[in-house]
Amino acid sequence: MEELLSDAAGRAIRYLDGLDGRRVYPAREARKRLGELDIEFPQRPTPPEQVLATLDEIGSPATVTTAGGRYYGFVIGGSLPATVAASWLAAAWDQNAYVSVMSPVASKLEEVALRWLVDALDLPPGTGGGFVSGATMANLTALAAARHAILSKQGWDVEAQGLFGAPPIRVVVGDEVHVSLLKALSMLGLGRERVMRVPVDGQGRMRAEALPALDEATIVCIQAGNVNTGAVDPAAEICDAAHRAGAWVHVDGAFGLWALADPARAHLTAGVNQADSWAADAHKWLNVPYDSGLAFCREPEYLRAAMAVSAAYLQQSDQREPGHYTPELSRRARGIELWAALYSLGRSGLADLVERTCRLAVRFADGLRQMGFEVLNDVVLNQVLVSFGDAERTNKMIGALQEEGTFWAGATVWQGKTAMRISVSSWATTEADIDRSLEAVKLVAAKILR
Ligand SMILES: *Cc1c(COP(=O)(O)O)cnc(C)c1O
C-alpha cells in the first residue's frame, strides 16, 4: 500500500506541477491514445502499480486541465489544495455517509460544514440541508421539499400517495431558467413544460412586475447567477410578493449563491436569503472536487419528510442523519471536502475567492473591450460574454482559440447573439493567466479576423 500510494502522490504532484505548461484542452494525439484503454476485459488480475501507471500514462495527457488557472468553460471550478489533500485521506477512509452510525466523522463534518454555510451565506438560522452530487440533484431535492410542503398543507401525502389525484401545484420560472431546474421538475412529476414562464430583462433577470398572481400552491423558482450573464433575479421583490401570497420561493444558486458570502456584492444578492429553499454547487465556485452540491431548506422538516425512507424511520435518532436529507442512501462522504474548503478559506478567504474571480472577470472583459470586441453582459459576477462579430466570426474565433490551447472557453447564444462565454471560477486563476489569455485572443484574432 505504501509504495502504491507514494507512487500515486508522486504522479499527482507531477501532474499538478505540469499544469501551467500544458495546453488546456488535450491534444488530438493524447485523445487518440485513449484507444489503448479499449482492451478486452482482462482474464486475470493486473497489479495495482500497473493499473495506476496505465491510468497516468494514457489518462493524464488526455485530461482537460480544469485544475489549472485557464479553463473558463461552462462554470467549472478547480479544487482548493486543502480539498485535494482531504479527498486523498477521505479515499483512504472509505466512509459511507448514509447514517451517523456508519461514519461518526462524516456525519459530524457535514453538521459542522452545514452550520458554517448557513452562517457564511447568511441563510435563516435553523436552515437545514442535504449534501448531494450537484445543483441538478440539489434542485430536485429542494423542490421535493417544496412539493411536500405545499401538498401536505392540503392534506395530501405525496410521498405515500404520489401525484395521481393530487391537488395541482403551479410552478413559475423565469424565461432564462436553467435546464437543470426543468430536469428536476420533470423527475418530480411536476413537468418541464407545464411551468409558467416570466419574461426577463436584457441581463436575463426575471421581471418582478410580470409575475402572475401567486397562491399557496405555487413554487416560484428564481435564479442567483444566470449561467450566461451571472445576473441575479430581483429576489427581495419576488420573495415579498410570493410570501404575501403564501407561495414557496426556490433559488437555483448553482454558482451565484456563493456571492452571498461576499459583503461587497450584498446589493446584488439582496433578498436571496429570504427564499424557502436553495440549491448550490460546491464543485463550481467553492472549488471542491467533484461531485458536490447542496440543497438547503429553511424548514428542514420538509426536506426530511421528502427524503427520509419512511415516516417511521424518522423516529430513530435525535441526531441529524445525513441520509434523511438526500435522495441517496449510501453515498460518499462529500462533506469532508466541503468542510476542508470552508476551514481552509475562513470567512475572509471565501469572500476573497468570490471577489478575486469577479475582479479577474472584469479584467478579462476590459481587455477584450480594449481590443474592440463587444462584451454583451454587465460583468456583475464571474461571467463574461464576448462577441467577435457575427455568429460565423465568433464561432471561428472560439474554434481557433480552443485549438490554440492557451485557454478554453465555449460558445453560447445570448438573447439571439452568438458569444464566447468566459467563466472565471477557479481559485487557481491569476492576473497573469488572464493576461496570457488576452494575449492569445490578440494573436488568434490577428490571424482569423483579418
Ligand atoms: C451548473 C448549473 C446547474 C447544474 O449544476 P450541476 O452541478 O451540473 O448539476 C444548475 N443551475 C445553474 C444556474 C448552473 O449554473
Structure explained in plain terms:
There is one protein chain. By secondary structure, the protein is an alpha/beta fold. The protein folds into two domains: 2-68; 86-341, Aspartate Aminotransferase, domain 2. Helices cover 41% and strands 12% of the residues. The chain is built from 14 helices and eleven strands. The protein has helices at residues 2-17, 28-32, 48-59, 81-93, 104-120, 135-153, 158-161, 179-187, 235-244, 266-269, 300-307, 335-370, 391-404, 431-448; strands at 128-132, 170-174, 196-198, 218-223, 248-252, 277-281, 293-297, 374-375, 383-387, 410-414, 417-423. Strands 1-7-6-5-4-2-3 form a seven-stranded mixed β-sheet, sandwiched between helices. A four-stranded antiparallel β-sheet has the order 8-9-11-10. Strand 10 and strand 11 (417-423) form a beta hairpin. The longest helix has 36 residues, at 335-370. The chain is globular, with a radius of gyration of 23 Å. The chain starts with a helix and ends with a helix. The model has no long low-confidence stretch (mean pLDDT 97). The protein binds pyridoxal-5'-phosphate. The site of pyridoxal-5'-phosphate has 13 residues, from helix 6.
Oligomeric grouping of the chains:
single chain
The CATH class assignment of the largest domain is Alpha Beta
Q: Identify the CATH homologous superfamily of the largest domain.
A: Type I PLP-dependent aspartate aminotransferase-like (Major domain)
Low-confidence stretches: none
Helix content: 40-55%
What ions, cofactors and ligands are bound? pyridoxal-5'-phosphate
Count of DSSP helices?
14
Taking strands numbered 1, 2, ... along the chain, how are they ordered across the largest sheet? 1-7-6-5-4-2-3
Q: Count structural domains.
A: 2
- Give the helix/strand class: alpha/beta
Task: Summarize the helix and strand pattern as letters.
Answer: HHHHHEHHEHEEHEHEEHHEEHEEH
Question: How confident is the prediction overall: mean pLDDT?
Answer: 97
